[in-house]
Amino acid sequence: MVDLFKALCLALVSLPLASQTLSAQEPPLQLYSGTYRAGNDGYHVSFQLTGNRVELTVGTRNCLGQMTGTLMQDQLGNYVIMGDDYETTQCLIALRPNALSATQGSFDLDQGPGCTYHHGASCQFSIGNLQLQPGS
Questions:
Q1: Which H or E run includes 46?
Q2: CA–CA separation, 90 vs 119, rounded Å?
Q3: What angle do CA 85, 86, 89 make, to 5 degrees?
Q4: For residues 128 and 37, is the Cβ–Cβ distance under 8 A?
């Protein structure tokens, strides 16, 4: 029953994502297992991908947060991370291709509502230009 609930929630949440089409400058997202990182000025996000399992970590001078979840793909090819405790938090995070996706394996994260549970009010998982780290 839980799997049916997750599938239904993913389908409902993907509806707004489905209306957002890729522009000509946004190539399809190519994901590889490994560690992706982004950040500056004391703000950093780490995205560890192993198979379809994701561990997200965010840190700032005043905030620390973590979430684990499953990477899923909807019918249109959009990637979404569904947190392991989705029934409690309803945290979904969308992965968005950017101008560097094709050449550098880069993408942006866009968190939805319900994710504050994982990191508090001082920071968020949304960030641009996460890049695969060499040797990860």
A1: strand 43-50
A2: 14
A3: 90
A4: no
Task: State residue 126 phi and psi, 5-degree precision.
Answer: -65, 130
| CA angle (20, 24, 30) in 5-degree steps | 80
Nearest to 111 by CA among 122, 99, 98, 127: 127
Q: Widest CA span of the chain, in angstroms?
A: 44
DSSP state of 112: -
Q: Which amino acid is at 11?
A: A
Residue with structure tokens 């489905």? 18
At 16, phi and psi to the nearest 5? -65, -35
What's this model's pTM, rounded to 2 decimal places? 0.72
Q: What angle do CA 107, 112, 116 make, to 5 degrees?
A: 110
Which tens digit of pLDDT belongs to each residue from 64-101? Answer: 999 999 999 877 778 899 889 888 778 889 998 888 77
Token pair 């319900």 is at which residue? 114
